[in-house]
Amino acid sequence: MISRTLIERLTNARLVTVFTGAGVSAESGVATFRAQGGLWSKFKPEELANLDAFLANPQMVWEWYQARREVVLNAKPNDGHHAIAGLEEFVPHVSVVTQNIDGLHTEAGSSEVIELHGNIRKNFCQNCGVRYDDLELLTEHHVPSCPCGGNIRPDVVWFGELLPSTAIELAEKRAKECNILFSVGTSSIVWPAAGLPLLALDSGAYVVEINPAQTPLTRHAHESIRGTSGVVMPEIMRLLREMKIPSELSK
Ligand code: BV8
To answer: Which of 18, 28, 33 has most ligand 1 atoms within 8 Å of its beta carbon, as the pocket-test mutant?
Structure first.
């Protein structure tokens, strides 16, 4: 299921961009959004992951994020996260561009992680913008207030909100410059993030999708591997080690 072409390309690549979604964290016990039994099967995104919902009912939205924080704070990186971090052993520059807000790529040791949709461990005041990154807030049941009178909210990008400009600009740069782009564990339907693999394709990158299911990206990708991140990424690492060892022996 993993082509020799891909492994050979990886051994010659200067920059590999790994674009990830909730599927990469599924094997760490963090629910996805749209897969079977995912978050959106229980809640309506428009009722929760948007500013109007927070302004209308800050306590309800805060509680939803506290419940997710409890899962994320107890989650550990899985074999897929570690294999993605391990790519740096073979490729001079690996950039992880993630839609995930759980911080697991950083915890797995990836050196460059671009968080397009924010980070669930961080907060800021909706009214004055002051940051609140103190850890005790992560277990605070009641939505906290800022001295300015505003409500404190998770530092994540909600529907209808712009992505952090520095993050999306750097992500677009990594999509344009990379030799290979992996799209791993994403349904490829949330924009503008979903446009990044297409930007990489237009810029001449070799695009590989890893997902147990088909997505709107499948028909555009050079390769679409039907499998889970926690199995396929470690297999790619194993094949890379096999390919690289003969060259080391030849020294
Ligand atoms: C914006 C909050 C300006 C954080 C989320 C065109 C251009 C620009 C915007 C839009 C556009 N068209 C529509 C829009 C509006 C909207 C949008 O994209 N809507 C979609 C639903 C149609 N975009 C926005 O609002 C963005 N803002 O552009 O502002 C603007 C606004 C309005 C109109 C124009 C311009 C903001 C988007 C961010 C929204 N925030 N969540 C949080 O609480 O987490 S969305 C949510 O979806 C998460 O952030 C998540 O990261 C994101 C993507 O989901 P995935 O990560 O792909 O997860 P999903 O469950 O969907 O899929 C998991 C996949 O994994 C599946 O394919 C499954 O098969 C696979 N899988 C499962 N297990 C495994 C696996 N794969 C591998 N291994 C496994 N083990």
So the answer is: 33
